[in-house]
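To: structure desk
From: M.T.
Subject: fold request, one chain
Message: Could you run this one when you get a chance? Sequence is below, nothing fancy, just the single chain.
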Amino acid sequence: MAGFSKTLMVSTDVAHIVLFHPDDLAHAREWPIAWYSEPFIFPAESAAGRLIGWCTGSDGGFAVRITDGPLTEREERYCGPRWTFPYRVRHGRVFIDNTDTLPGVEQMTQPSENEEFWIDIPDGDYAVTVTAVEWSAEPGARDDGFEPLPNYVVQFQPGALHEIKPAKRPPDLDCLMEATATDEIYRHTPKPPKPIDFDRHYPAFASLHVARAGQEFSTQGEALVEAAVPADADTFALFDIPFVVAADLAPGAPAVIAICHGSGGVPDQAVRYSFRSRQAVQIAEITGMFAGGNYARLGTTGLFRRRPKPVPSDALAAVRISPLPASQEASSFKELDTLRTKVLDDVNGDGPFAKQLGGLAGYEALRLAASEDRNAVLDWLIDNLPLAADDRLRLSILPPSARCDALSSAYDAHRLHAV
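Reply: Done. Structure tokens follow.
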């Protein structure tokens, strides 16, 4: 192979640089933003020799030298962490980018708009080593007229893909000699949920879109959400109010405590509110209403005045809640694994879920297959089966074994109906 060396300036505002060919990643054209960094995606795409990517540690402009030769003596003297990736050149060239050109729903540019970022490389399998360089450590590096070292050197050398272990995610390669390369997964430990106050009154409403605990949902025109906010409160008061949301506001019905985290809309239309479901509970009783942020009891009506009056259109219902019944039952791993296998075969093949998900099927299949939580398939089915809101909530709070049985039956019915 004739030797080559090409240096390009890559600017990034996502602290990542990637090398790829768009044709190799056409299957990702409907995948969500930042899919390349997901630990259930990157190892699979890397092992297949379709993607190289690393984290720069910060945004900014980076000089990247791509070559099939060795590091220069100067580069070697100031080199820092490095990582070797498997890669297969299939089209005689590769593209280097700040992720803006990666196929996906958030793709911002096309390779044809940045022709200078193509690098011609003969087809074949390669071991590609990316080395970070602390260019600023070289004496005189910032002087006028001095030719500084690159931030990164990318070396293409022939190599067998199966002999190179893929990274768990795009590894951190900071341009510091003392830095260490790492692909350890970022672990986020969520804060434990706040203790639930079962003695207070909560503003509540019904929504056809309510989601199980841990998920997000939106509501528009289903309830006057702002009735829970005092008239003299500031703009952000809404985001501090815990709401109780259910598919049906009735005593004994399953519900979630949800927090609003966004609102918006267009003139002459109802406001759209975004909620995050925090904890599952059940409704104990409807006790009154909230209007202008204030709680009030409802009057009574009917024979002997025993029936509460309906909640006015300019108010929200007020409820008390109670905890869900405790269950120590564990699900059967055998039943879960059988269900998980069926669902994965569906999503990876030509089943109803594969057809329903379309271009997202491959993404969801990788996500399911990589999950270390066997119960993840149950939550996934709750989120993806065509279930009514009350069924979603009801199934989400069943004991594990009963939830597995119910969702397995719902899935089989879905497959039968889709035939």
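Reply (cont.): Residues 283 and 321 are 5 Å apart (CA to CA). Let me know if you need anything else for the meeting.
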